[in-house]
């Protein structure tokens, strides 16, 4: 399956140094896993974590998308991380703090894996379009905690201080056909707060949510999947439009609303996403 067509509703960070967590991840109903060699691993464990992760990836993670987040290339561990990913059986490599396409050029020279970019700096927000246009880029991950820190922004439940950056990145991702997943929600015991933030991201066009705890997975999976009502509406829109077209008409009416080509395109995307999720969860 093309990476852009794969469900990315729930994207869970797992410390690459924790063998037990790496093993448990195989049992979780997540769409994707970010195996973290960066923030979640102490300096003294960096080298060992690479070996632990390589062994875990060799055992496989089913149809889950496997993404390795390395340390930045300007750190003492970054280059070794990047070179190690070249032989790891992972689906993609996630580079932190991408500010410009040149950072992806540097990474592309070290591995042939698809690249993902952490979007977490003001400079990265301003360069979102050129980053998304990079030929090796497959996905973007919002790093909202780091972005808020650099912006010196206050916390607000509506995330208004972050909206400019989030919007720029969504626009860039959609313009170039890249996956984009929202930043983490820090209160891992607040299901309702997470649900609200997931729905906000989904309404903006995000493909999913990065998560810091397995307890959050079900909420994200539900929020970023088509609802039964949306699937039913999509089917009725397609059927009504096809019937109208057979009668030589260019529009149809469903539930008192006009249905045109663009609505049918969206309806087909909804059904395709639902089918992809069903395939993923059936395994």
What is this structure, in a nutshell?
The protein has helices spanning 19-24, 46-58, 78-85, 101-108, 122-126, 128-132, 144-151, 163-176, 191-204, 217-223, 228-246, 261-281, and strands at 10-15, 32-36, 65-69, 92-95, 115-119, 137-142, 179-182, 208-211, 252-254, 257-259. With 283 residues, the protein is of the alpha/beta class. It folds into two domains: 3-223, Alpha-Beta Barrel (TIM Barrel), CATH 3.20.20; 228-281.
Order of helices and strands: EHEHEHEHEHHEHHEHEHHEEH
Class of the largest domain, according to the CATH hierarchy? Alpha Beta
CATH topology of the largest domain: TIM Barrel
- N-C termini distance: 15 Å
Number of beta-strand segments: 10
Largest sheet: 8 strands, parallel, barrel
| Tally of individual domains | 2
- Fraction of helical residues: 40-55%
Q: Just name the CATH architecture of the largest domain.
A: Alpha-Beta Barrel
Write down the Rg.
20 Å
Strand pairing plus helix content: what structural class? alpha/beta
Q: What fraction of residues sit in β-strands? A: 15-25%
Q: DSSP helix count?
A: 12
């Amino acid at each position: 399956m093309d990476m852009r067509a794969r469900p990315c509703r729930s994207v869970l960070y797992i410390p690459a140094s924790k063998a037990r967590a790496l093993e448990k991840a195989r049992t979780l109903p997540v769409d994707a896993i970010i195996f973290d060699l960066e923030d979640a691993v102490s300096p003294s464990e960096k080298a060992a974590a690479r070996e632990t992760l390589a062994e875990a990836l060799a055992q496989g993670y089913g149809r889950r998308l496997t993404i390795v987040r390395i340390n930045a290339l300007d750190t003492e561990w970054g280059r070794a991380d990047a070179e190690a990913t070249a032989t790891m059986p992972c689906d993609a490599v996630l580079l932190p703090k991408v500010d410009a396409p040149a950072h992806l050029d540097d990474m592309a020279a070290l591995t042939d894996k698809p690249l993902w970019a952490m979007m977490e700096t003001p400079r990265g927000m301003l360069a979102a379009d050129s980053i998304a246009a990079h030929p090796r880029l497959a996905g973007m991950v919002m790093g909202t905690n780091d972005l808020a820190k650099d912006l010196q922004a206050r916390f607000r439940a509506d995330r208004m201080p972050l909206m400019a950056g989030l919007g720029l990145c969504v626009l860039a991702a959609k313009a170039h056909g890249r996956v984009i997943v929202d930043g983490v929600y820090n209160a891992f015991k607040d299901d309702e707060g997470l649900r609200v933030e997931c729905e906000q991201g989904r309404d903006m066009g995000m493909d999913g949510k990065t998560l810091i705890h397995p307890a959050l997975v079900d909420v994200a999976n539900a929020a970023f999947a088509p609802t039964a009502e949306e699937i039913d509406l999509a089917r009725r829109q397609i059927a009504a439009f096809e019937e109208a077209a057979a009668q030589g008409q260019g529009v149809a009416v469903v539930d008192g609303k006009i249905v045109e080509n663009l609505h049918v395109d969206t309806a087909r995307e909804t059904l395709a996403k639902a089918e992809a999720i069903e395939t993923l969860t059936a395994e």
